[in-house]
């Protein structure tokens, strides 16, 4: 798996990023403040095309979303959930989801684990922050322990299972972010204890989200 890692960054992926981000912005046709029609222009003093209301003049900014989740260690195994929702229906993931306004990242990770695996966890430390600029997401994955040995599939999961590290279902993982997280974790465990990792997942231009191996891990830092 380490062959998919690279420290290089390509300018072509940056170009693709800005095209796609502009594409996303162009989908915001109506103002979120007054409901008026938006135009799409570069405002004075800015560099990107924004959705600007033609009625009230306010700009609808789009910013990355935070995805929070848990890597739950139990008896040298880790807890994974099989998705019962799209995208990546039927594929395996660590419990994770979008952070809500009003909660901390750690609270969000605990909540998502409860919702997806009916598991009560205590977070131990932050394991990885992984940015995915192409789709405007940042993942924060916490190391966590089960407060009790009970878990079962929540409404968004068809199965929840503890996997030995050798048995992780690598052939049916849901997302590149999970592949990166699990690779980093297993590499850490081989040589000792989990560290903290920061990295940027750059998907290869022209590949679909389901091609989870089509990425480079750039700017990888660990401590
Ligand atoms: Zn408006």
Strand and helix map with partners:
Layout: H1 11-26, E1 38-41, E2 50-53, E3 59-60, E4 65-74, E5 77-83, E6 92-93, E7 96-98, H2 105-117, E8 121-132, E9 137-146, E10 157-164, H3 176-191, E11 197-203, E12 215-222
The structure holds zinc ion.
Q: Notable features of this structure?
A:
globular, Ubiquitin Ligase Nedd4, Chain: W, Nucleoside Triphosphate Pyrophosphohydrolase, alpha+beta, binds zinc ion, 20% helix, 2 domains, nine-stranded mixed β-sheet
Rg calc: 19 Å
Termini gap = 21 Å
Q: Low-confidence stretches at least 5 residues in length (pLDDT < 50)?
A: 1-26
Q: What is the highest CATH level, the class of the largest domain?
A: Alpha Beta
Count of domain modules: 2
Question: What is the structural class?
Answer: alpha+beta
CATH topology of the largest domain: Nucleoside Triphosphate Pyrophosphohydrolase
Mean pLDDT across all residues, rounded? 89
Oligomer: single chain
Ligands bound, unique: zinc ion
By DSSP (H or I, 4+ residues per run), the number of helices equals 3
Main sheet attributes: strand count, strand direction, barrel closure: 9 strands, mixed
CATH architecture of the largest domain: Alpha-Beta Complex
- What fraction of residues sit in β-strands? 25-35%
Order of helices and strands: HEEEEEEEHEEEHEE
Number of strands: 12
Q: Quick one: overall form? A: globular
Structural write-up:
With 223 residues, the chain is α+β, with helices and mostly antiparallel strands. The chain folds into two domains: 2-60, Ubiquitin Ligase Nedd4, Chain: W (Single Sheet); 65-222, Nucleoside Triphosphate Pyrophosphohydrolase (Alpha-Beta Complex), CATH 3.90.79.10. The chain is 20% helix and 35% strand. It has helices spanning 11-26, 105-117, 176-191; strands spanning 38-41, 50-53, 59-60, 65-74, 77-83, 92-93, 96-98, 121-132, 137-146, 157-164, 197-203, 215-222. The strands form two sheets. Strands 4, 5, 6, 7, 8, 9, 10, 11 and 12 form a nine-stranded mixed beta sheet that branches. Strands 1-2-3 form a three-stranded antiparallel beta sheet, with helices on one face. Strand 8 (121-132) and strand 9 (137-146) form a beta hairpin. The chain is globular and about 60 Å long. The two termini are 21 Å apart. 30% of the residues are buried. Mean pLDDT is 89; it is low at 1-26. Bound molecules: zinc ion.
